[in-house]
Amino acid sequence: MSERSDKAYWAANMRLIKISLVIWALVSFGFGILLRPLLSGISVGGTDLGFWFAQQGSILTFLVLIFFYAWRMNKLDREHGVDEL
């Protein structure tokens, strides 16, 4: 890989990481803690939505983000020619 391609690869990688972290922080901290009072009127599974995000939603979101990151990084690796053969 050329230096230009290296920089593009790492820029795309860092952008993906930043987006994933923002989504996770929004779901776990934002919905589970900061917005919990606003979500308390919505019932999910016998409990309010804010509590559900704090207990289950952030974990499920994190798992989805792990699989999304792996899928997207494999695609990014192929695009930049650094995939595993």
UniProtKB/TrEMBL annotation:
Pfam families recorded: DUF4212 (PF13937)
Keyword NAD attached: no
Domain spans labelled Sodium symporter small subunit: 7-83
Keyword match Phosphoprotein: no
InterPro entries: Na_symporter_ssu (IPR019886)
Transmembrane segments: 21-39, 51-71
Keywords in alphabetical order: Membrane, Transmembrane, Transmembrane helix
Highest taxon in the source lineage: Bacteria
NCBIfam families: Na_symport_sm
Name listed for the protein in its UniProt record: DUF4212 domain-containing protein
Organism: Palleronia caenipelagi
